[in-house]
Amino acid sequence: MSTAAVQIGAIAGRSIRRTVRQPAMAIPPILFPVALMLVNAAGLEASTLLPGFPTDSFLAFALAVPFIQGALFSTMNAGTDLARDIQTGFLNRLSLTSLRGSSLMIGQLSGIVVLGVVQACAYVVVGLLTGVHFASGAGGIAVLLVFAFIVSLGFGALGSFLALRTGSGEAVQGLFPLMFVLLFISSMNTPRDLIAVDWFRWVATVNPVSYLIECVRSLIITGWDAEALLLGFGIAVAIVVVSVALASWALTVRMTRT
Amino acid sequence: MRSVAPVALGVAWRTIHNVLRTPALLMPTVLFPLFFFTAFAGGLSQVRNVPGFDYAGDYTSFQFVFVLLQSAAFGGVFTGFGVARDFESGFGKRLLLASPNRLGILVGYALAALARWSITATLLTTIALLVGMDVGGGPVDVVGLYTLALLLNIAALCWAAGLAFRFRTIQVGPVMQMPVFLTLFFAPVYVPLDLLSGWIETVATVNPVTYVLEAGRSLLSGAPTEVGLAFAVGFALIAVFAVWGVRGLRRAEAAG
Description:
The complex is a heterodimer.
Chain A: H1 3-21, H2 23-26, H3 28-43, H4 58-62, H5 64-87, H6 90-95, H7 101-129, H8 137-166, H9 169-173, H10 176-184, H11 198-206, H12 208-222, H13 226-254
Helix pairs in contact in A: 1-7, 3-5, 5-7, 5-8, 5-10, 5-12, 7-8, 8-12, 8-13, 12-13
Chain B: H1 4-21, H2 23-43, H3 59-88, H4 91-98, H5 103-130, H6 139-167, H7 173-185, H8 199-206, H9 208-221, H10 227-255
């Protein structure tokens, strides 16, 4: 096995174990989005009576939201973990070793990506148990899990970048309101073409979170919608490219060996 | 009773002073309700066109009442965080030693919660009026609505302070927050009670906040209904949580 693979394996193992051993980090990202979805779906079921609403089940419509909300949470989880490593001096000790920055980054993000995919599986199970029919079938569920992988990676790298730049878990946690705003000012509760307030529709249209939600939603309620999938995957991959580049740069600065 | 006032005013002044001088404490209380108002009133306005949605005003006013009540409740909860912080840092112990009448401590925190919420309520109301919210009710109705919110503010403060006095650590924050958050969201947030169905209808029907919310909305729209019931619920919540708060204060005294 190559040196890089050993290094990645060691860091990834630590990251996954740390995530699993902290129920406070692993459970809320699964439970809170599901609880919010169930409450919203119950309260907004009447919305499906609106002319042009794309489905007769608000639960099916809302099921897309936890996938993205869970991924947004992973930004904070990844950042908080890494910030703790910085604050405790663990990263400084690592910088004294021959560990490659790329190995550290890939390994560090593994725990978050594993959590992201586990979350996505949990949401699929919740959907199936509550009677949601996935219009794209088993293939769509597989694509959905791949999408969850990419989105978790993108937001996890973004959280890592912020942790590396600030070195503070509190600063990363301070992102929570911003993540919440991005989620709520999107098409999470209403299809964009049914949003009556012009400025809100405009904000939802320029908000990338809308397209991530609509990509997942298309697999659940529409089937195979090429436009929604291309936009969703395109934006998710763009987030991965930008955030991994930023995190790599920030890691290089943080681990400068003097 | 005379010895309550100086303690209450001292605690209230200190708490308000701290909040106003610390943006990190003030901003969440102010920004979260504005954000919810924007997201709900802006993003969900089409819900007004759902068949059977029989509210007299527009959807902005429908959501305004929910967000106003939510801001009042969270004004109380966030002040409870401050109580917990004071006791965690040891300031609470010194406060207990220095107070001739310790009931004044709880009253003081309640005054601070009210002052804190009034900032949010003023800003929220101004913004709602600027975006053209329908106000069908007259001055008496509007005063009734704000009084209902005030009752929730006091009840939430007593709930949160009761926990803070008992646990004396900020780690109890989620326990203060989550039940209030859930109780509010288990009310008819997005549509009137008649349009709810399934488990949420059952929960909303037995949720006391539902009656405060529905009466508040009726007051703002100028067609008051079940206002007496809503006030009874409000006063009952205060009575229950005031006992909870005072007993918590006694626990803190006993803990030394």
